[in-house]
Structures are given as structure tokens and as C-alpha cells.
Amino acid sequence: LAKENGKNDFQIFMPFLLLKNLNKIEIEKNLRKAIENDEFVLYYQPVVNLENMEIHSVEALIRWFLAQKGMVSPLEFIPVAEESGLIVRIGEVVIEKALKDLKDWEQRGINDIHMAINLSARQFKTKYFENTVAKLLEKYSVDPFKISFEITETGAVENFDVSLKILGFLCQMGIKFLIDDFGTGYSSLVYLKRLPISGIKIDKSFISELEFSKESRAIVEGIILMAHKLGLKVVAEGIENKKELEILKGIGCDFGQGYLFSKPLPKDEVESLLLQKKILI
Ligand code: C2E
Ligand code: MG
Ligand code: MG
Ligand code: MG
């Protein structure tokens, strides 16, 4: 149909956009309700130290289950939450739940676990974000050294001065910053290094190609070398099999995360792994 309209082929996008907009409004309405009714749940995925195969930290990953419909992927609703600004409140809920669970683990003897929390750019660049974080840390008396925030390259580099100020403040408190999905955005390590970040997470798209592509392997190896030279730790995301693990160990990757070790799990289920500490595969 669009073809028939010749040059006017942008028309093909009209129904798609309309549908998308309708969906957004629906999702937004439901998100507001979800905040009110406290419908969000955190799952946790272990991050493994590849040197000794011990769990170093868990990454908190938000889950939203809709009655009848099942789980809505964060990939679907986080962008809507960002656009509408609801991410600020949702992000606060995430930080609070994560700190509460971390405290809970501490009180039951699991003392040496770190917590990684995803931040959206819009969230950490809102006014008083630092204060919110400081208050919550105090409320749950969590050691800021146990917390790292994951931000994307684009989020870090956009409004660079604002990033620099907020990251600087939180960093001084002892919180660490990691660049998430590294390699998928537009930036360079050299540029990122002007921010106080302590590590990068190589995006899973590179990891899944490791076995088959010499180029991907070269890229990952290069990223690791450069990161180490800059004093950054490296986490590989999305490790799904032993072959990938062996390659990553061979090229000096520090940490790994992926279905090979564990899927993201509800709090109760991840606990048994934390108690066991060592990941057996
Ligand atoms: P992310 O931060 O890069 O998180 C890693 C994603 O990869 C998670 O998807 C995780 O379940 C998935 N994953 C882990 N290991 C494997 C593996 O071996 N294979 C494959 N194929 N996937 C694996 P999830 O939980 O669906 O989250 C998707 C994205 O949503 C996250 O990507 C993050 O960007 C965002 N997100 C999740 N929770 C939050 C949150 O609390 N706040 C914000 N702002 N964003 C969040
Ligand atoms: Mg992440
Ligand atoms: Mg990622
Ligand atoms: Mg991500």
C-alpha cells in the first residue's frame, strides 16, 4: 500500500504510531496504578567473580506482573516510564526495595554481597536525586560502598556537566558507577573516563557472538585491555554457556553474569545461592 503512494511512503508509519501512542497511554495509566498499589517486584541476578567463581554482587531487575497477562518486560515499560517521568518515582521504589533486601540479607549473616541498581538518565538527573539516595541509605543503614549504580553510555554523556556533578557527589559517598550495555551507545572509554566510573558491563550482544566471530572476540579483548589500563573493572553480561565463559576467563574478564550461572531470581530463591556463595556449573 505504501508503495502505491510512491514517495509518500511515510504513510506506512501512521497506523503504527497511532497504535503505539494508544498503547503508551494504556501502559502509563497502568504504571500509575502499579506505583499506587506497590505492584513492582525486584528479581536478583548474581554477578560472579570469574577468578574464584564466587558471587560478588546481585543486580536488581524490576519485574511487573499483570493479572492474567503475565510479566511485562522492563524493556517495554521502562521507556514509557522514562518518557512520562514516572521513572523518577519507580526508580525510587527500586532503590528502596533493593536497600531493604540488602539490609535483610545482612541481618541474616550474608554480609559480603554488593548490590547493583539500574538508573535511567532521567532519574539520576532530577533535582535532589543525591538527597533521595542519601536518605534511603541512612534509612536502611546500608554502607554506600556496597552499592553500584548502572547507567548507560548515552545517559552518562548527555548533559555531561550534570552527570559529572551528580556522579561526583555520589562517588564521594562511596557509591560506584558502572556503564551498562557498553558498546551499544555512542561514546568512548576515553570520554567516559572523565566521569568517576569504576567499571563497564560489556553488552550481551558481544558475548553471544564470542564463539563464532573473531571480530567480536577482538573487540571484547580490546575493550578489556583498554578498560584495565584505565583502571576499570569489566563485567560480561549474558554469559550463556561454558565456551563463552572460558573465552572470557582467557582474556582476563573480571566478572560475569548470565543464564549459565543463574537467571534473575526472586529474593527468596537467590538467597540460597548467596548462602552457598560459590557458583557451581
Ligand atoms: P540490563 O541492565 O542490561 O540487565 C540485563 C538484562 O539481561 C536483564 O533483562 C537480564 O534478565 C538479561 N540477562 C541476564 N543474563 C542473560 C543471559 O544469559 N542471556 C540473555 N539473553 N539475557 C540475560 P531484564 O531483566 O529483562 O531487563 C532488561 C533491561 O531493563 C535492563 O537491562 C535494564 O536496562 C532495564 N531495567 C531492569 N530493571 C530496571 C530498573 O530497576 N530500573 C531501570 N531504570 N531499568 C531497569
Ligand atoms: Mg544493568
Ligand atoms: Mg546491560
Ligand atoms: Mg540496559
UniProtKB/TrEMBL annotation:
<feature type="domain" description="EAL">
    <location>
        <begin position="24"/>
        <end position="278"/>
    </location>
</feature>
<protein>
    <submittedName>
        <fullName>EAL domain-containing protein</fullName>
    </submittedName>
</protein>
